[in-house]
Structures are given as structure tokens and as C-alpha cells.
Amino acid sequence: MKNFASTRHRYLRDPVPVRLGGLAADLARIGSASANPANGRVVEVLLEEARRFIEWTADTLDVDTAAELVDLQLALTLWLRAWEGAQAHPAQRALLAHEANCWSERVLALSGLTTQSAEP
After folding, report:
1. Which stretches does DSSP call E strand in 8-106?
2. Residue 7 covered by a domain
């Protein structure tokens, strides 16, 4: 598995909304990568990275948001454990793609990045 020490250091430098935006981006990447059976290893690394992003951020959030992300982390863990067998089945890859894209939209909404006004 990937060494996440440098990723953690870089991730924690960002403010929480940007961290959540990074998590949302990883989830979107899972959604697109899981459609292709050749991306099995990429999806596995992204699932693990997304789990760690939640671990590194949840304690800085309000209780309700943290609980929602911990539920997501559990779902990601279940997918990670099932991925070796699931990646061979188009229906399972499609299910993960759909779920990951839904999660991505939700986490992006939680980040508040989509509601911030652009600077002139």
C-alpha cells in the first residue's frame, strides 16, 4: 500500500473546506476510475486515501458532520475489503461509481466551497 506520510503532511496544511474539497475530488475519481476494470489498483489506493482524509479531518468538524463522514469512512472500508472480488463484476463497479459520485456531491456540499462567492 502507498506510504501516506507526505500526503498527510500536505493534506493537513489546507483549511478544512479545502480538505473536504480534496476528499470530494478523490470520491469523484473513484467514481470515474471504478468504471474501468483496468483501474483496479488505482481504485484501491483512492479508497484508502479517502478513508485517511476522513480520519485526518473528522476531529476538526462539528459532531453531525463528523458522524456523517465516519459513516462514509465505514462504507469506504467495506468497499475496500470487497474490492478484490467486486472489481471483476461490471454491476459492482457501476454501483461503486454511482455511490462514489453521490458521496462526492455530498462532501462538496459539506465543504461549503460551492456556496462561497467568487472574488472579483
Report:
1. none
2. no
